[in-house]
Automatic annotation (TrEMBL):
Gene3D superfamilies xrefs: PurM-like C-terminal domain, PurM-like, N-terminal domain
Name of the featured protein: Phosphoribosylformylglycinamidine synthase subunit PurL
CDD domains on file: PurL_repeat1, PurL_repeat2
Domain called PurM-like C-terminal: residue spans: 111-262, 487-627
Class of the enzyme per the UniProt entry, highest EC level: ligase
Entry's EC annotation: 6.3.5.3
Length: 656
């Protein structure tokens, strides 16, 4: 877990460095999916590590690589589900900044090929193949050779050297050695020209490697650059200054042929046009099998206070502060809004990338595999909606927002799994098209299965969406916690009977119900109007409704200042008739926001929000008690301190 997570971070930092002519990494993002932490050894499958051990190893790997690189790790999420026991997911992301004039690469015939960074060894050979195959109890032994060995200090030197060389215009193109090592780096970047590679010139960690091993090794901390031969001496000077190796290992051709040489003998030759375009596309059969099971709720809730406490303690809702505190959030001095605010969680993270400008970047994410078990289509649409809500809550402009995807599914050779992928793609297309937000990057990881004998465990269909948005003026951002007693609490958006995949149903062990829907046209109008209200300084606090619905969002907004809230449940805007109060409190319907607005600003706020379904559902009070009233009866009346302790200790107590 430690090594795998560390290489995940190192790899995505190099992806960032290999974008354009080199982007400076300014933020790391970490999203994890683990098995349930309360699984005991009897429940574990043979060859599977306990989820708690995996979690601690993964967090340590991300921490040690990011912290030593001097990059803040300040945005992320953690999700727990029993089917991630054997196939945990570690999503690592990096955000970078780059001058506009350095965005485009040029692939020019006769440029030399330069390998920069660490030496090449056998570590990581077939690592990408291992990561894409199904796991078995024997996989743990094989993994030691497939998992690369990371060195963040070496990578930090590489980043500094390359950015300096970029600013001196010393190279024309750059990419990283990721999956497939030199074979993919050169094979992809030299597609239009061709290349001649001298494999015996590649610096090795030790002798004895065959030319095949050199070509496909996935040893870490290596970059490939194309540059004019006359610029290499200055480039080498810069690399020597930072104590980084730089070696000429080949030259670009003009005939689209890839020729590999070892000790002056040709050991490989292929036409790159054939390599990239010669194989027919794979055709798969897809069957859409998942159906929502709608069941009338007929149980009685004896104690709403206890129910809310249990939901706040749930590991998918509870505070992730123990994990967050492992990371350096402040390094580089760009973090404007951190993921946790003296108790209350932030919806996303804000960076101020340029000191001389008061503009910001909002980053948020959305993930919910429980929705995917019921409806991959609406899961995909929902996580896009969630990621967009998160950046809007941070002050982001929905019309200056981009997203990226990470698809993690099981074996696409099986019709049902392929059907899940197709449904998720269609749902993502529907939501992104409707919101008008472009996909600017993405990745997939398939074959997430574990086999023991004839038994297979597959992960739930999982799609992570990350969103990045421009904040034109950092002065117009707000935080998520309540600020002033007597200010009004306004719920924006409609609530439906949408409890499929909800935290409420998960604690009742009910895998049924209707997954939340998304209406992008309506949602975009809401987000645009919220942005306009923020620009006029009309909102004191803003928080989206997500896992746990209204009950959780209200509690979280009370934590930081230890204020209370008095809520009239009848005032919640409904999209359909709902008789049961538990549905209203814990529904996870999309595109809903809680706003705190001062009474003196109320008229202006309501004027801006005209045409949007919203209502005043209560007010902030000084007494630190959350009260939710329905039909003149207090269903919930509980001290904020009790709720806060449940939320703070729910996950931490299971980790420690």
């Amino acid at each position: 877990p430690y090594g795998g997570a560390a290489t995940g971070v190192g790899g995505v930092i190099r992806d960032c460095l290999g974008t354009g002519l080199g982007s400076k990494p300014i933020l790391n993002i970490d999203v994890f999916c683990f098995g349930k932490l309360d699984m005991n050894k009897r429940n574990l499958l043979p060859g599977v590590l306990p989820p708690k051990r995996i979690l601690k190893g993964v967090v340590s790997g991300v921490r040690d690589y990011g912290n030593r690189m001097g990059i803040p790790t300040a945005c992320g999420a953690v999700y727990f589900h029993q089917n991630f026991m054997a196939n945990p997911l570690v999503f690592c992301g990096t955000l970078g900044i780059i001058p506009k004039e350095k965005i485009k690469k040029e692939i020019i015939s006769n440029d030399i090929i330069v390998l920069v960074g660490g030496d090449t060894g056998r570590d990581g050979i077939h690592g990408v193949t291992f990561a894409s195959g199904e796991l078995k109890k024997e996989s743990r032994k094989i993994a030691y050779a497939a998992v690369q060995i990371g060195n963040p200090i070496e990578e930090k030197k590489i980043v500094d050297a390359i950015l300096k060389a970029r600013d001196e215009n010393l190279f024309n193109a750059i990419t990283d050695c990721g999956g497939g090592g030199l074979s993919s780096a050169i094979g992809e970047l030299a597609e239009k020209t061709g290349a001649e590679v001298y494999l015996d010139k590649v610096p090795l960690k030790y002798s004895g490697l065959s030319y095949t091993e050199i070509w496909i090794s996935e040893s870490q901390e290596r970059m490939v650059l194309f540059m004019p031969e006359e610029k290499f001496p200055r480039f080498k000077e810069i690399c020597d200054l930072y104590n980084v190796k730089a070696t000429v290992i080949g030259r670009l051709r003009a005939d689209q042929k890839l020729i590999l040489k070892y000790e002056n003998k040709i050991v490989g030759e292929i036409d790159l046009n054939f390599l990239h375009h010669g194989m027919p596309k794979v055709k798969r059969k897809a069957v859409c099998r998942r159906k929502e099971t709608i069941e009338e709720i007929n149980w009685e809730i004896k104690d709403y206070n206890e129910l809310l406490i249990n939901i706040l303690k749930n590991e998918n809702v509870a505070s992730k502060e123990w994990i967050i505190r492992q990371y350096d959030l402040e390094v580089q001095g760009r973090t404007f809004l951190k993921p946790i605010l003296e108790g209350s969680p932030s919806d996303g993270v804000i960076l101020k990338p340029l000191k001389e400008k008061n503009r910001g970047i909002a980053i948020g994410c959305g993930i919910n595999p429980a929705y995917g078990e019921i409806s991959p289509y609406w899961m995909a649409a929902s996580v896009i909606d969630e990621a967009l809500r998160n950046v809007v809550c941070c002050g982001g402009d929905i019309n200056q927002t981009a997203i990226l995807d990470n698809f993690c599914f099981s074996n696409p050779e099986k019709e049902e799994a392929m059907g899940d992928i197709v449904e998720a793609c269609l749902g993502a297309y529907f939501a992104a098209k409707g919101y008008g937000v472009p996909f600017i990057s993405g990745k997939d990881s398939l074959y997430n299965e574990f086999r023991i004998g004839k038994k297979r465990i597959t992960i739930p269909p999982t799609l992570l969406i990350s969103a990045v948005s421009i904040i034109p003026n950092l002065n117009n951002t707000v935080t998520s916690y309540f600020k002033k007693p007597k200010s009004k609490i306004i719920l924006i958006g409609e609530t439906y009977k949408e409890l499929g995949g909800s935290v409420y149903f998960s604690i009742l062990n009910k895998n049924l119900g209707k997954v939340p829907r998304v209406d992008p046209q309506k949602g975009k109008k809401i987000m645009e109007k919220i942005f306009n209200a923020l620009q006029q300084g009309l909102i004191l606090a803003l928080h989206d409704l997500a896992d746990g619905g209204l009950g959780v969002a209200l509690a979280e907004m009370c934590f930081t200042k230890n204020l209370g809230a008095e809520i009239k449940l009848e005032n919640v805007p409904l999209g359909e008739a709902i008789e049961r109060p538990d549905v209203i409190i814990f529904s996870e319907s999309n595109t809903r926001f809680l706003c705190e607005v001062e009474e003196k600003q109320l008229a202006k706020f309501l004027e801006i929000m005209k045409g949007i379904k919203l209502n005043i559902i209560g007010e902030v009070v000084e007494k630190p008690i959350l009260t939710i009233n329905f039909q003149n009866k207090n269903l919930i009346a509980i001290e904020i301190e009790i709720l806060k302790k449940a939320w703070e200790n729910g996950l931490t107590a299971k980790i420690l």
